[in-house]
Amino acid sequence: MGTREEQTRRLLYLSLLVAGGTVLHVIESYLPALGALPGAKLGLANIVTMLALMAYPPADVWKVVGLRVFLGSLLGGTLLTTTFFLSSAGAVGSAIVMMLALKWGKGVISTVGISILGAVAHNLSQLIVAAFLTHSWGIFFYLPYLLLFALPTGYFIGILTRLIRRALPSFFSVESAGNDKNQQDLDHQCGICQ
Q1: DSSP string spanning 84-118?
Q2: Which fold has domain 4-187?
Q3: 109 φ, ψ (degrees, to nearest 5)
Q4: Which long-range contacts (CB under 8 A, 24 or more apart) does 59-65 make?
Q5: pTM of the model
Q6: pLDDT per residue as tens digits for the range 154-173
Q7: pLDDT per residue as tens digits for the range 111-135
């Protein structure tokens, strides 16, 4: 597992990711929706999820995602409301899809491509939960419009993630579980939306 110093550094970096994700979650909750559709947001907190995915094993990623959503909802005043459940669904759905894309998309999908897939999964997960809560599948009529926003926002978040990762290489060298090689591969591929 590493020395005590490495474990402490890893815990510190994970805590910084949680704090950053929480701040981004709260800030975005106060920003207006993109366009006329409720729920169409940039997805800034997904930057933190992607950074965690590229540097840490899945168990740590789930801690970051769970704490980020919980603390962001607590500070934003939406804990255990409909917004909390929609936010949780989006975060979990996008994390699952991005994990699978990172694992199975080696050599094919770039950082930006993974981000776009995460944005699409985020919207789809939220619509599934919204349909369950409202007992109406008619809400899926919003899906094409939400996907129109998912593509550019996913692209934007992917680019930001790549830039942050390159700007802070030592931050991600603590314990990458082999993911540093994955990240180098992702940045130099001609896969989806390089």
Answers
A1: HHHHHHHHHHHHHHHHHHHHH-TTTB-HHHHHHHH
A2: Arp2/3 complex 21 kDa subunit ARPC3 (1.10.1760)
A3: -110, 130
A4: 60/10, 60/14, 61/95, 61/99, 62/95, 63/14, 63/18, 64/14, 64/17, 64/18, 64/21, 65/21, 65/91, 65/92, 65/95
A5: 0.77
A6: 999 999 988 888 887 766 65
A7: 889 999 999 999 899 889 888 888 8
